[in-house]
Design goal:
The chain is globular. It is α/β, with parallel strands linked by helices. 48% of the residues are buried. The chain has 2 domains: 194 residues, 3-Layer(aba) Sandwich (Rossmann fold), CATH 3.40.50.2000; 152 residues, Rossmann fold, CATH 3.40.50. It has a 7-stranded parallel β-sheet, with helices on both faces. The chain has a 6-stranded parallel β-sheet with strand order 10-9-8-11-12-13, with helices on both faces. Strand 4, helix 5 and strand 5 form a beta-alpha-beta unit. The chain is built from 18 helices and 13 strands. Bound molecules: uridine-5'-diphosphate. The site of uridine-5'-diphosphate has 17 residues, from helix 1, helix 14 and helix 15. Uridine-5'-diphosphate (UDP) binds next to helix 1, helix 14 and helix 15.
Length: 370
């Protein structure tokens, strides 16, 4: 009988982390791989475009749960996921990252004795005001197989007493997508479409930056100052768009040097990252993508769960402060900013390693019960 592996996704960054799984699982004759989508992100720009562009396998199951409070969404995902796994009976449930839907699925699977594999395990910001930090810790406490992207992950998991033999440094699956789609990314014409040449690229969606009127006002002010130096491209996350309107900040952004767009599809977005003078962000994934591409990245957060992007890569944490940000932009412009290097196993083959580890996990299980 084939072993049944169920990968559960729910959000934009989840989708980007699993693009290469179906390709590698398809080469395993003893594994059946299915994809479940909880529906946490559902807008065309935050979801469908990634299936279209990146050839991600169509979800075998779509729970379509998105409206309601965070807790309500988590609870309903748990209920529906329970029904599904009782029927399907997977042998392994894989969850990526730190989003609510990954926690909900991991919790239910573990409760039914189904081993959980966590993709991007062991990352810690040590900031419990971030909902994602609680999710990371909770998921890792429900996990049997830990897939780690950077050395800090292994260190944290060992420090928390997790068994070394189940911690696998497989690398970064987000980079797999980047490597697989490089020719298409390079061929994008988005810069011509947007009319930009020498520009800063911005993404913001963390509650600390956008849900607070004072902080968002400072941020908008910094953006207008940056726009005096170069063009600014700002693809706006739905949450940020809502807040800009609510706090009546749209007029300030009405500037010929600021190009505001809806969230952009992956291919065009990465093309913009690759060619940006600097990326200014609070995203998790973008810190890694800039490190891989050697593009300077200023992360407007007090901490990061991805420290390798600072110690080895091109990332710097910055306060929400115009003087600090403008000084760093000047350093970058003058060519004195750090260059960075690509961390180990951020090489486009992390998904392949993960699939091989899953096979080894089942082999070991079989040997133990034989
Ligand atoms: N991304 C995208 N289009 C955009 C903004 C981001 O395709 O307009 C991609 C980005 O390249 C990265 C992922 O979305 O792969 C990051 O998602 P997000 O910042 O929403 O989540 P986080 O990584 O912070 O959890």
């Amino acid at each position: 009988m084939k072993k049944k592996v169920l990968t559960c996704v729910g959000t934009r960054p989840n989708l980007i982390k699993i693009t290469q799984f179906s390709r590698w699982f398809a080469q395993q004759p003893h594994i059946e791989h299915k994809l479940l989508h909880t529906g946490q992100h559902f807008d065309y720009n935050m979801n469908d475009v990634f299936f279209e562009e990146l050839g991600i396998q169509k979800p075998d199951v779509f729970l379509n749960i998105n409206q309601g409070s965070q807790i309500n969404v988590i609870a309903r995902i748990m209920e529906e996921f329970e029904k599904f796994i009782l029927e399907y009976k997977p042998h392994l449930v894989m969850v990526p990252g730190d989003v609510n839907s990954s926690f909900a699925c991991a919790f239910v699977a573990q409760r039914y004795g189904i081993p959980v594999a966590h993709i991007e395990s062991g990352l810690r910001s040590f900031d419990m005001t971030m909902p994602e930090e609680a999710n990371r810790i909770l998921i890792d406490n429900l996990t049997s197989l830990y897939f780690v992207t950077e050395p800090s992950g292994t260190k944290h998991l060992l420090g928390e007493g997790k068994s070394e033999e189940n911690i696998k440094y497989t690398g970064n699956t987000m980079i797999d997508a980047l490597v697989a789609f490089t020719p298409v990314i390079d061929a994008s014409t988005v810069r011509e479409k947007l009319g930009v040449k020498d520009y800063y690229l911005l993404t913001f969606h963390r509650p600390v930056n956008v849900d607070n009127k004072e902080n968002l006002t400072v941020l908008v002010d910094i953006i207008t100052q940056m726009a005096q130096q170069k063009q600014v491209v700002f693809p706006i996350h739905p949450r940020t768009k809502k807040r800009i309107a609510e706090f009546r900040l749209s007029d300030k952004l009405n500037n010929p040097n600021i190009v505001i767009t809806d969230p952009i599809g992956y291919i065009d977005f990465i093309h913009l990252v690759k060619n940006a003078a600097t990326v200014i962000t609070d995203s998790g994934g973008v810190q890694e993508e800039t490190t891989f591409m050697g593009v300077p990245c200023l992360t407007v957060r007090p901490n990061t769960e991805r420290p390798v992007t600072i110690t080895e890569g091109t990332n710097t944490l910055v306060e929400l402060n115009a003087a600090t940000i403008l000084a760093l932009l000047q350093q970058i412009q003058q060519g004195t900013y750090k260059k960075g290097k690509v961390p180990t196993f951020w090489d486009g083959r992390a998904s392949e390693r993960i699939v091989n580890e899953v096979v080894a996990f089942f082999d070991k299980q079989q040997a133990a019960t034989a």
